[in-house]
Amino acid sequence: QLQLVESGGGLVQPGGSLRLSCAASGLTLDYYVIGWFRQAPGKEREGVSYISSSDSSTYLADPVKGRFTISRDRAKNTVYLQMNSLKPEDTAVYYCAGTLDLRSGALLPKAPYEYNFWGQGTQVTVSS
Q: What is the maximal distance between C-alpha atoms in the chain?
């Protein structure tokens, strides 16, 4: 069973930076697509960024393109989301999620229902 734990959230001023971590235990992340999602109060969960099992494919949603970066450290079995130039609208609970990478060249899964394993979430608040 893959277990995911997010960390790194907190309160930051607009324009600031945070790095979220998604640490895995139980299984190696090497065979999994990992996605970062976020959910603001009263809104649906939305995809933010994804990385393939080989790291050859990554995706950033339009609202975060140019500001966020996704990466993986295989030695630490951890995926990161570096968030720069944060805006108040980035305020949300951020979740990481995993699904086995069985795509055979298909596009990265982007919908929450396509992911089997979820962390508990970490709060990110961007406010002055």
A: 45
Q: 69 exposed, middle or buried (CB, 10 Å; 0-12, 13-18, 19+)?
A: middle
| Amino acid type, 72 | R
Beta bridge partners of 37: 47, 95
Q: If we measure between CA atoms, which residue out of 92, 91, 95 comes closest to residue 81?
A: 95
Q: Which of 125, 127, 98, 105 is nearest to 41 (CA)?
A: 125
Q: How far is Cα 111 from Cα 42, in angstroms, rounded to an integer?
A: 18
At residue 1 the predicted structure's pLDDT band, cuts being 50, 70 and 90, is: confident
What value does the mean pLDDT take over residues 101-119?
Answer: 90
C-alpha pair distances (Å), 106 with each of 57, 72, 102, 103, 109 = 11, 20, 9, 5, 9
Per-residue pLDDT tens over the stretch 53-109:
999 899 999 999 999 999 999 999 999 999 999 999 999 999 999 999 988 767 899
How many Å apart are CA 101 and CA 107, to the nearest integer?
10
